[in-house]
Fold each of these.
Amino acid sequence: MSSPSSSTPDPPPLIPFEESDSAGNTTAVLVTAVVALALAILSVIARIYTRLYSRQEVGLDDYMIVGSTIGLSVCGGLLLWFYAVAAYGLWLADVPVEGQLGLSGHDLERITLYLKMVYVVAMLYFVVSGTAMLGILLMYRRIFQSDKAFNIQLIVVGALVFGWGLAGTIASVFNCVPVEKAWELPINDERYCYNYNIFWLAMGIFEVILNIMILGLPMASLRKLNIPLANKLSAGGIFFLGGFVVVTGIVKVVLGYVPTARNPNQFKTVLWATLHLTTAIICATLPIMNPMLRQIRKSRTFQLVAGNVFSKTWRSTTNNENSISRVSDGKATGNGANGSDQPKTIPLDLLGGKGRYRDV
């Protein structure tokens, strides 16, 4: 009989799923997936509508973004499904190896289903993200097609994006050898699988670099365009909205990485990867929607609504200023130092009217 000092310690007790943080995290992922997916789909619908409304040809860049959105929809659908039927997935990442090996029965079946879906989504991630980046590059080519030097840069960056997406997809397929070890417990067994935590970090850093390169590509060509400076600044501002993609990519990398672990943080990775892909699709769509947004601003309904809002805001601010003036000076409203009334003015272009100013 072995002594207590030499006996193997018992594995730490499992925290029930209902009492763990993963229960709330699962709800957060579900809500994020629904909202993000809806925004992405609506933005792409608006993109295609704008093409048809402005009588522009639907090009390869549009098909790429539509394909990326379909891939994101598949990922989102899988997220909603497997967190509905196998909500233990996020909880499993916090379970020690001894606890994972002790799972059996219905719990094991649901967790195996979860791991299979994670395997599929991990492959699709690189396809969806790579397709979105290629769609943006093709949009650049459509805008600056006469700039030969710029088109060479597009080809180089496009080749890097394609290589990144292909390498990420293949590496995700063969994360474990044999492949079925990817959905068997324990998760990411070091005997059969490489360290996916390091892989996700490295691929995420390279993705951020690609996003920065794509973001900066059109700036030199914009300076060459023979258009007013205001239009250049407006176009540059629209392109720089892609900076949100860079930000979400950095957050995804930083928060997903877990030092000394073999897998990234499940909750933070799924959450920020969803937001990152959604942001990429929306930012790729915004430059195309400018004609539709311009038409909305010109519409009589928008002008009436905007006019009422700005007029009420201005009058409220003016009344507050006059009330303060009466309290502080003890004089009649509107009298300055010389006793003359100073009329207030607002820009009529904010109200959709003609002319520069109007008295109120």
Note: Residues 225 and 232 are 8 Å apart (CA to CA).
Amino acid sequence: MDEIDALRGMRTALAEDESPDALASRIRWRAGTGSPAPESAPRPLRRRLRLPLAGGLAAVLAAGAAAIVMTQPGSDAPEHVTPLVEGNVLLVAATNAEKAPLGAYWHTRSISGDIYAVGGSAKNFYKVDSRQGNESWTGRDGSGETFHLDPPDVPLTAQDAQKWRAAGSRRMVRVPDPEGAVGSVYLDMAGTGPAGPFPVSPGDLAYGLTPARLDRLPTEPKALESALLDLKGDWHAYTATAKKEPIRALRGQERIRALSEVTIALLSTAPAPPKVRAAAFRMLAAQPGVRAGGRTADPLGRSGTVISLPLKTTVPLGLYTAPKQLGTYTRELIVDPARGMLLAVQDLVATPPKGGRPLPPGDDGKPRSLAAKNMPDRFSRPGDLASYQAFEVAQWTDQAPPR
């Protein structure tokens, strides 16, 4: 398994419609045994990277670097847009995405959030949005720079903010460890600021979609789908052994999952030409079961249209581990048709966590186990936001990265 496949396992991946326990059994995962470890001192929460990275870039981001000043959000909607017509949301998005100009750099800034319940009971808790992000400039040759963003964690709603202030407005908020260790972790309500820059090379781009390869992708939806189905990777995120194969070899939900992940990359982080991005929107519109819903606000407060994917469950996985969730989730996209832009991908609670499951020992050799009482969404209800990735900026620009 190479770095791209390994880091892909750290993302929230689309899964088959089955319970986490059935999934653990299907991939032949077996937990270790041992007695409970003693209570450990709380530690800062280690969050997963949402964007696929590879090679030395991933190692540098893990190590950290000097902070820089975060830039401001990008421009608003383009001047010439096609009016939204009911029933063709993705086609309108495609038309407007195709109008976008090319530039010297593909500039993206994304913020990812995991929603944590803080408190001891369903009657007395508040929610915190634990955030991190990336900002990147990728040139037409695939080289560029990226910065790791560590903004403050924030109360999810105004009501949650009131409860946080009533609890003392603590900078470090203690929550149960969701990764299975016996102990607690901290949410940082102040953040540490951006770090970087770190170099980007063509080998760091998701799914091997270098600019040269992106330029060669078809701009007709069916032809684009056929080309993407030939992409090779370890698409079975839940098998015991890695196996590279084309998406075309998959069937049913697994094929939809893999094709959806690549499509999301084309609509967000990949430096795809406007015509390819437009074709990706049209391809998505043609997929069976993809459904447009009503208007809503994304996690950053921007208005968009909900696009539901024909999948019943999402399962966040850790590196070489069994599923680390005890509930089930649905996934939806939020699209701004007028801007031709994917605003966000978000996972909603379908069934709250319940029960428990042992896990293999951690790096310290101590046994671990999952328990519903420690899950971030332990007090959530069906339909509540569990996690998200919002694309604050995703556009071609001639402006070089900051020096």
Note: The chain has a mean pLDDT of 78.
